[in-house]
Amino acid sequence: MTTVFSKIISGELPGRFVWRDDSVVAFLTINPVTDGHVLVVPIAEVDQWQSIDPALWAHLTEVAQTVGAATATAFDAARMGLLIAGFEVPHVHLHVFPAHSMDEFDLSVAQSDPDPARLDEARTKIADALVAAGHSDKVPS
């Protein structure tokens, strides 16, 4: 069965993308723990992170680092959070988000109905930071 992430990646469902290359995408989650919460997802449907091809895993984490650095700049974050959970969607994804305390490392406190304008603003800020860092070829318009 196709995952909700595959439907977002293919354009069947909307997404606020900040990164796209041949094997990995990054888009804002619709349930952020903080403004700027991004999911970094392989295009290939892999259920569990320990099953992913090592080369793809390396690239996935490299993209998470790059997106994390841009997000830290965009939101002036003291720290960047990184979580792997996988219970919500059976498709590997890394949660990358600005963190100000350990309380934010709890996905159960994620916003259930965030303001779409804030999500759009967060997407723009992260995309602008990625472009400024030299990654314009990976930032979808």
UniProtKB/TrEMBL annotation:
Domain HIT, first and last residues per copy: 4-107
InterPro entries per UniProt: Histidine_triad_HIT, HIT-like, HIT-like_sf
Sorted UniProt keywords: Hydrolase
One BP annotation, GO: nucleotide metabolic process
Motif (Histidine triad motif): 91-95
Gene3D superfamilies named among the record's database cross-references: HIT-like
Hydrolase in keyword set: yes
Residues annotated as the enzyme's active site: H93 (tele-amp-histidine intermediate)
A single GO molecular function term of this UniProt record: hydrolase activity
Pfam family, one: HIT
Keyword Hydrolase: yes
Protein name from the UniProt record: Diadenosine tetraphosphate (Ap4A) hydrolase
Organism name: Williamsia sterculiae
Source taxonomy: Bacteria, Bacillati, Actinomycetota, Actinomycetes, Mycobacteriales
